[in-house]
Amino acid sequence: MSKYQLKVNNIIEEIKNINAHSVGLQFPEGLKVYATSVARRIEDETGADVIISGDPSFGACDVSDASMKGMVDLLVHFGHSPLPLEYDVHMLFVEAQFQLDVIPAIKEALNLLENYKIIGLVTTTQHLHILEEAADFLEHEGKTVIMKQGQGTRKAQVLGCNFSAVEELPVDVFLYVGSGNFHPLGIKLSTHKPVIIADPYRNEARNIDKFADRILRIRFARITKAREAKRFGIIVSSKKGQLRMELAKNLKSMIHKEGKEAYIILMDHISPELLIPFMDLDAFLVTACPRIAIDDANMYKKPLLTPEELLIVLDTKRWEDYKLDEIKYVKINQ
Ligand code: SF4
User: Which atom of ligand 1 is the closest one to the Cα of 83?
Assistant: First the structure.
């Protein structure tokens, strides 16, 4: 039995409402194991044909609407909330919230929060439904909790490429509810405020500082190496929600002004193997998902930089002002 709320009843209702004969299903990797059981229920209860997307899906920036256009009347995307993008087919987003008890992890975090009064509470899509309970508990403990809606995100929601929900929040500390380190790192670098993680999967709490120091050391080394580069590859994603061609062109002309070479490379999926033919280039800039350059740094032989990091390489930005790259989903398809 899944601990995720896959809301199959709502999906069936929508299929009947719009009289869909063919339905696409798209899951992130962790939820793909439920694909066939969801498909079977839909086919049994509605008579619609189901097509399951087998491609990787990392976010609502990466929806298979273009590839399923003309094949399905409805595409159900699991695990992410919608972004302000125009999708090519009728969409239903199912956030697939995970059922868990947040309070033990918040209790663990209280020790680390004892010197702070005003807390910015923040999380990702999968845990938004448990934040109110966390906020009530903290307020009962005498804290003041603040949550803000981001630009293109919901209240208290951050994405790996969008930290607008924490910008300029007048808080003493941020409390991130979730398991990974990447989002808390982005919050730390965006705000320069302390960030505590309350992990409801392990019922533990920790500070992000050690992880942030390690990542910053790695980024500094990559930036230093890229200063020697004479030829750059600028990777642009063909995924609708990651496509930043205008930014790539601007970066290319900045590099040219320095008397260096730059080439724009359009790719759907980015991997070390797919960059092998381009090993005559000295460094790569990734204008696609900002996580690629940071999370996958060790997989690549040549430095992979974010657009923000190129500014430091070109001395138009100071290392002290380092931030993660962000996609704010406002003029994304320029
Ligand atoms: S671009 Fe990356 S971080 Fe942003 S929503 Fe897509 S997968 Fe997530």
Answer: 5
Q: Report the top-level CATH class of 8-94.
A: alpha beta
- Ligand 1 centre from 54 Cα, in Å? 19
- Per-residue pLDDT tens over the stretch 184-224: 999 999 999 999 999 999 999 999 999 999 999 999 999 99
Supply the pLDDT for residue 329. 62
Radius of gyration, alpha carbons of the chain: 21
Range 215-321 has CATH code 2.30.30.240: no
pTM: 0.91
Angstrom CA distances, 131 to 85, 93, 147, 192, 203, stand at 26, 20, 10, 23, 15
CATH architecture of 103-207: 3-Layer(aba) Sandwich (3.40)
Mean pLDDT, the chain, rounded, equals 95
Determine the distance separating the centroid of ligand 1 and the alpha carbon of 164, expressed in angstroms: 14
Distance CA 246, CA 244 (A): 6
Which of 62, 93, 182, 244 for mutating ligand 1's site (highest number of atoms within 8 Å of CB)? Answer: 62
Domain with CATH 3.40.50.11860 in the chain: 215-321
Q: Ligand 1: which of 57, 58, 80, 182 to mutate, most ligand atoms within 8 Å of CB? A: 58
Expressed in angstroms and rounded, the spacing between residue 241 Cα and the centre of ligand 1 is 8
In this structure, the number of other CB atoms found within 10 A of the CB of residue 77 comes to: 27
